[in-house]
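Amino Acid Chain and Its Fold in Token Form
===========================================
Structure side: the spatial fold of the chain, written down as a series of whole-number tokens.
Position: the record begins directly beneath this header, with no further notes in between.
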Amino acid sequence: MATLLFLRVLVDFGLVVLAWLVQLVIYPSFRYYAVADLLQWHSKYMTRISIVVIPLMTLQLVFAIYFLIQLYNVLNLINLVLIFLIWLSTFLQAVPLHKNISLKIMPHASAIKLVKINWIRTILWTVLCIVNSLTYMGYTSFFVNNC
């Protein structure tokens, strides 16, 4: 169990680092591209970032479901709800804006809006990482002190 909790924290940490990089560096940089350059880069960016994001988000969801099934409690339920909110924000807000950029529908305006709406995911991933890190530290310290 401790190994799975640790792996969950690693996945959470990977996503939170990625979220902050995207929020502070990648999305804001989109507005500095000429439209033609943005369209060319965005296509490559989406392919490359998906290689990292899709497995991590999928693992995060799998861990949340697994831990909720193994130990149904409020903390594990909140964990799954936070992930659900992240997925909602991703697929109802971020994906359509990325699609707008790809389809040349107001690419710079969509890029600026990405920065604004991505704060939701960045904050949720940060909270999730902190909660799961504290859970892991509490779990491991309990067994270190009691075994």
About this structure: Residues 139 and 145 are 10 Å apart (CA to CA). The longest helix spans residues 107-146. The chain has one domain: 2-141. The mean pLDDT is 93.
